[in-house]
Design goal:
alpha/beta; TIM Barrel; two-stranded antiparallel sheet; 10 strands; globular
């Protein structure tokens, strides 16, 4: 299996890939305000790559629960200078985390090769057209509602079946619009219109989504459901729970892990793969 992102073909059969989160926002739930300066953000991208990130995901609008949307002008101001600083000297694929086709196009023009779209449920024609035009990678993420309202009272008759149906319908829609299946990765959208119970049920049934033949993205890093299940209130105390989810998901067939803590996740994945019987580790003393 591979994920095609413009000039990059990312092979995923041999080893999983860590997608390092780079939020250039003042209000993201974990790292908001840390990388608002473009120079500092670019330095962080290099740091994440050195830690083992195979993709860097740059976001200029917080989509945490109850977050207010930001204008296109403001999102441009946050994201584009970072891409311009990295353009031409950064050899790790860059994705842009945005719901706005206008920003996605400008990011792809400046060297991004993938769009991570938390608004994929809306199937905006302009977004799908530019993904086709650029041959970009596309993360199709499930979200019930919008960030401002999604956690008010999320309800499902069967969350696993409904998200599975969403993936099937989305892939059919993309193919009709000329987007190759190899360009698409699937994200169940943990915490996006889901209760803690929904999230645990999705974790338990991740393997079901592998039937679509596309790489699965896991984005649970430090999310609140981990704190609720483990009884940990502080965001910074949720790393251990995040790594537990990563190892479970790897066994279920997930191959792309979107995380804040790249070095720790790379280490956990390396140990899991070394221990797993079907994997032959390199010889070591």
């Amino acid at each position: 299996m591979k994920w095609r992102m413009a000039k990059f073909d990312l092979p995923l059969n041999e080893a999983p890939v860590v997608m390092g989160i780079l939020n250039v926002t003042p209000d993201s739930f974990s790292d908001g305000g840390l990388y608002q300066d473009a120079s500092h953000a670019a330095d962080r991208a290099f740091e994440l790559a050195e830690q083992g990130a195979g993709i860097i995901d740059i976001g200029g609008e917080s989509t945490r629960p109850f977050a207010a949307p930001v204008s296109l002008t403001e999102e441009r101001r946050r994201v584009l200078p970072v891409l311009e600083r990295l353009s031409g000297e950064f050899n790790v694929p860059l994705s842009v985390d945005t719901r706005k086709p206008e920003l996605a196009r400008e990011a792809l023009d400046r060297g991004a090769v993938a769009v991570n779209d938390v608004g994929a449920h809306r199937r905006i024609p302009a977004m799908l057209e530019l993904v086709r035009e650029f041959g970009a990678g596309y993360v199709c993420m499930h979200m019930q509602g919008e960030p401002e309202t999604m956690q008010l009272q999320p309800e499902y008759a069967n969350p696993v079946a409904e998200i599975d149906d969403f993936f099937a319908a989305s892939l059919a829609c993309y193919e009709e619009r000329g987007i190759a299946p190899e360009q698409v990765a699937l994200d169940a959208g943990f915490g996006f219109g889901k209760t803690a119970r929904h999230n645990v049920e999705l974790m338990r049934n991740l393997k079901r989504f592998t039937r679509h033949g596309r790489p699965l993205v896991l984005g649970v890093s430090k999310k609140s459901f981990i704190g609720r299940v483990a009884g940990v209130e502080a965001t910074e105390g949720r790393l251990a729970g995040s790594l537990a989810c990563v190892c479970w998901a790897l066994q279920a067939g997930v191959r792309i892990f979107r995380v804040h803590d790249v070095a720790e996740t790379v280490q956990a994945l390396a140990l899991w793969r070394a221990i797993e019987p079907s994997h032959v580790p390199r010889e070591s003393n």
